[in-house]
Backbone:
């Protein structure tokens, strides 16, 4: 059976050209529109995978695409010689919009370009005859699955509802994947990874569908092609955005052994030139006609392109705009250079000669570092283990670590080489790193990325609390008053603010001694990091984008924690700006198996409120081990797998044992208890009651409870809810809470309001896998760039609305 062809929407005013495009794209479902209005009608009915449009309606069509088809690929048919159109598209790209440009001449080359955009497989997908079974191992668990269909590049599998689907998230490698017909081997995969996972409806047979990508064995894949950006419009737009963001540019000499940094740049698209300026003279490194490499780091990606030097003056160099840029997505985006202001160095004894060596570091991050060595008499072969390395930190302290040499290469920066005859660069992977060294590296990264940001634990907490008071951000448990802040907040700030425990981190934005912004992160579950307590001092800060800087820094910090798998953000729906912006970004980042968008409504009730007694036949008791297994299976079948994994609602973590142990080591607490109501035919409902040290999360939603109803609309559902709520309120009272709070679903609200709970307004919870952090920051940066480029726009940026 052939997979249904995806639709391509063609928007062009000329009927003849639309007919030509249809013939070029024969074999694909083509939707034709002559103008924007007709295109919108198609968009309202369905979502095309690609929108191929004439340049004239494209700028206005962008708003419709954002609304109706935010994930559709956008491509503009751009005439070769139309300079005005070319420049207008550069303006659109520079505003942060993502799209591609294609030659408007219908030809086989255009068809190839479209196929590359769509990444369509040329082979059909077939339903096999008879029953075939796939067997594989993932995350230490053996699985068996029914083969649904097969194609050249992958398989479709169906798994039973009872499987541990949380172990099969996209990107998971399937070890030893084999397909059998009875006991006869049909297929043995060299390398297989999960591409997609989704639940199947009852009419589809139930269970889960698993999309598996088949690739050549890793030993046969020596290199991975580097992504290449060849679209002139997108290149110019990228360079303009980078200039506006103040990104540093560098030029590498033709020999590849020196990289000169420039402090400012200016794009001249009409002349196809980029002007780079620096404070000191380049020293005769560059001359007109030289072929050089242009390098810039932007959005967590290193861009490198070959270009030519056009002119050289005392303090500037003019180069041609590169025709292509290679994109290098760094494995760890927190790499930064060691400088005179933040000097890092290492010392160790050579494993071969015993010679004591001291080396200043070239650059570093929490996973590794690089230092120079003299290839004339020193050897550092890849794989060499350095068991005892002393890391010299900027504050004068030292820390021990273990490391292993990864590779060696050209020394590519213009630092002094210390008199080395044949200077080379040695890249090292850190095997063990002490917490104090990790903290020092991360704090140095924050300073390198944003000079006005710093470790929030260095500030007195009353100064931070005054910032929240000025922004009028309120929390029910911690009202403002004339005295000092609540003791619970002070204690939490002292215990976790510096990030040494890996449980929390506070970052502040301070300029000329005045505090302008604050954000912190909190490990709310064993592998989930929450971005929280974001606030910016009231005033006009659009041109500085303090909020974007803080959010990006917090995400980068969380990404550096190797044991963090998910990042979570919360925002109140009543904050219209936040809901609009972050909701749009969340929709663009929707990835089944990698992200989750969930809504809940906090509802509060004083613990001394009079509640009607529950029915005598609805007894609430603590959940036992067998009950938890039943709950785990129920959640697998009814809830999103990302939310289960990111909230520790999986086997062995229901009571937050791993997380609680880490908090206990820090002198704090974090736990979850579960109770249930059992009926004649099994469980009717559960209540999950969480407990944490007050002051870790100021809204105290991790001192609240939530309900899991087996049948939400059953006749006895509200009676079961009342019994579970009464039990949870009593538990809050026993823990010394003055109020009980329920994180309610829409189905719970009626029963809770009937018991007197106060509705605090709906909250959105967005959870994303760490591999989406780069995309999140890229979308966020694009939003703030558009705001900065449109200072008189209709969207009012109110920074206190961002506080969640």
Residues:
């Amino acid at each position: 059976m052939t997979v249904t062809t995806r639709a391509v929407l063609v928007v062009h005013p000329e009927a003849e050209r639309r007919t030509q495009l249809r013939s070029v794209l024969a074999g694909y479902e083509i939707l034709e529109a002559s103008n924007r209005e007709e295109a919108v009608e198609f968009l309202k009915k369905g979502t095309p995978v690609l929108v191929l449009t004439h340049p004239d309606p494209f700028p206005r069509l962008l708003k419709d695409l954002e609304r109706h088809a935010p994930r559709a690929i956008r491509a503009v048919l751009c005439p070769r010689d139309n300079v005005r159109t070319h420049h207008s598209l550069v303006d659109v790209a520079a505003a942060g919009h993502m799209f591609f440009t294609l030659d408007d001449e219908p030809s086989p080359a255009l068809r190839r370009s479209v196929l590359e955009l769509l990444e369509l497989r040329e082979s059909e997908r077939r339903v096999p005859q008879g029953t075939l079974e796939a067997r594989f191992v993932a995350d230490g668990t053996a699985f068996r699955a029914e083969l649904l269909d097969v194609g050249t590049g992958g398989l479709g599998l169906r798994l039973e509802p009872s499987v541990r689907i949380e172990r099969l998230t996209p990107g998971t490698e399937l070890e030893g994947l084999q397909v059998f017909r009875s006991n006869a081997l049909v297929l043995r995969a060299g390398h297989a990874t999960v591409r997609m996972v989704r639940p199947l409806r009852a009419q589809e047979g139930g269970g889960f569908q698993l999309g598996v990508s088949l690739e050549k064995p890793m030993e046969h894949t020596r290199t991975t092609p580097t992504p290449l950006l060849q679209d002139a419009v997108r290149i110019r737009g990228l360079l303009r955005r980078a200039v506006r963001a103040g990104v540093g540019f560098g030029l590498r000499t033709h020999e590849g052994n020196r990289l000169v940094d420039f402090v400012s740049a200016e794009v001249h698209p009409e002349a196809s030139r980029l002007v780079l300026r620096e404070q000191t003279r380049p020293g005769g490194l560059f001359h007109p006609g030289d072929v050089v490499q242009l390098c810039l780091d932007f959005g967590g990606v290193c861009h490198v392109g070959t270009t030519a030097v056009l002119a050289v003056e005392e303090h500037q160099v003019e180069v041609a705009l590169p025709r292509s840029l290679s994109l290098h997505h760094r494995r760890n985006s927190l790499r930064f250079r060691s400088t005179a202001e933040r000097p890092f160095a290492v010392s160790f004894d050579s494993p071969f000669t015993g010679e004591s060596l001291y080396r200043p570091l070239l650059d570093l991050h929490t996973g590794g570092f690089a230092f120079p060595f003299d290839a004339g008499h020193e050897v550092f072969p890849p794989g060499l283990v350095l068991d005892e390395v002393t890391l010299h930190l900027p504050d004068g302290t030292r820390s021990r670590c273990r490391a292993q040499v990864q590779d060696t290469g050209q020394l590519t920066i213009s630092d002094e080489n210390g008199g080395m005859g044949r200077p080379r660069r040695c890249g090292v992977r850190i095997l063990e790193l002490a917490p104090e060294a990790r903290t020092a590296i991360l704090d140095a990264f924050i300073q390198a990325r944003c000079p006005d940001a710093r470790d929030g634990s260095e500030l007195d907490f009353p100064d931070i609390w005054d910032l929240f008071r000025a922004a009028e951000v309120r929390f029910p448990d911690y009202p403002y008053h004339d005295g000092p802040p609540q003791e619970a907040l002070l204690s939490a700030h002292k215990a976790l603010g510096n990030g040494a425990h890996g449980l929390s981190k506070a970052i502040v934005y301070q300029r000329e001694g005045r505090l302008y912004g604050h954000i912190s992160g909190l490990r709310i579950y064993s592998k989930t990091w929450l971005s929280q307590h974001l606030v910016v001092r009231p005033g006009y800060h659009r041109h500085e984008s303090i909020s974007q800087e803080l959010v990006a820094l917090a995400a980068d910090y969380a990404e550096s924690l190797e044991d963090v798998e998910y990042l979570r953000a919360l925002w109140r729906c009543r904050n219209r700006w936040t809901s609009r912006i972050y909701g749009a970004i969340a929709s663009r980042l929707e990835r089944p198996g990698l992200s989750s968008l969930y809504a809940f409504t906090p509802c509060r009730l004083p613990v001394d409120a009079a509640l009607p007694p529950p029915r005598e036949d609805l007894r609430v008791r603590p959940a036992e081990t067998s009950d938890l297994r039943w709950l785990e299976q129920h959640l697998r079948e009814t809830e999103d797998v990302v939310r289960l994994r990111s909230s520790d609602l999986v086997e062995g973590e229901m009571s937050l044992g791993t997380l609680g142990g880490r908090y206990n080591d820090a002198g704090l607490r974090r736990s979850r208890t579960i109770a249930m109501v059992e009926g004649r035919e099994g469980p009717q409902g559960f209540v999950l009651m969480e407990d944490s040290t007050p002051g870790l999360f100021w809204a105290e939603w991790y001192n609240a409870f939530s309900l899991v109803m087996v049948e939400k609309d059953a006749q006895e559902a509200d009676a079961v809810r009342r019994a579970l709520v009464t039990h949870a309120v009593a538990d809050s009272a026993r823990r010394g809470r003055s109020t009980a709070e329920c994180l309610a679903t829409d189905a719970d609200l009626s029963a809770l309001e009937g018991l007197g709970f106060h509705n605090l307004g709906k909250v959105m919870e967005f959870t994303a896998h760490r591999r989406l952090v780069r995309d999140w920051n890229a979308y966020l940066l694009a939003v703030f760039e558009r705001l900065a480029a449109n200072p008189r726009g209709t969207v009012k940026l109110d920074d206190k609305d961002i506080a969640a």
